[in-house]
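Alpha/beta fold hydrolase: structure tokens wanted.
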Amino acid sequence: METTEVIAKDGSVLIGRKYSPSEAVHAVVLMPAAMGVKQQFYAPFAEFLCEHGFAVLSFDYRGMGESLPPQFTHSLRGFDADISDWAELDYNAALLAARAWHADVPLLVIGHSLGGQLAGLLPDNHLIDGMLTVGSGTGYWRHNAPPTKRLVWLLWYFLVPFYTSICGYFPGKKLRKVGNLPKGVIYQWSRWCKDPRYFVDEKGDALPTYHQQFTAPILSMSFTDDEMMGRRNIDGLHDYFSHAPVERRYIQPQDIQAKRVGHFGFFRTEFRHSLWQQALQWLKNQEKQQGKPHPSAKPN
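Answer:
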């Protein structure tokens, strides 16, 4: 693994990690993170893919993880960013960087939760040859799984507006909710999660997206014991990709001889011989079916 810089269109510097196979590269995989999750969480799965011939690029969104400027280490007050910045600037820049890194092999995306949500907001998502989503759905609170639905209304209608107005950012780490998030991010996320359409602007109008130009195959892997995403969340997100072939696997833990998977469990090494193998086989199939060079793209 080597650390790398990804430069967004507005000049912001993101820190990423490159995982390079020791032999021939079959495909390049971009691995965007879930909300509040640092890229290091995905390192074991990235290393697993690398062992099987996939070059992997992960990154932290601006204001998160290794992409957090030192002056904001103790407080995100004054840090200017929203989720649209994460998608259109950060995620899209990482996509172009992955494409340029290995321009002659298929480009695949593995999006966990938010990482799958934002794929439809990328201006250059037409470059993607296949996407695997893991526990990815809209965050509309009335469709959340019962464990989350019982409490999340308190988050959106009380905790977020109260603590964010006082602190200038969402102090999720102290509250043990998601993690510290920039004010623009938490306010936009709150707005989305309170609307059944999810992708809405400040006026409540539908947000312009790039779902219609996304035509690559998608595999959705979700789990019956996900404590956050309900089935309607999962289906609601993937319905947006109306021009893409979508395969939906709604997996019960007992089907893989597991007691629990949940929202984050897929990436635990205990699933190396079950869920990871399912994902690997699908990714290999995309590599074989695509197997064509993409027009070279240079990162902004």
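Strands lie at 2-7, 13-19, 27-31, 54-59, 107-112, 130-134, 169-171, 180-182, 218-223, 246-251. The helical segments are 43-51, 83-101, 114-117, 146-167, 172-175, 183-193, 231-239, 275-290.

Cheers.
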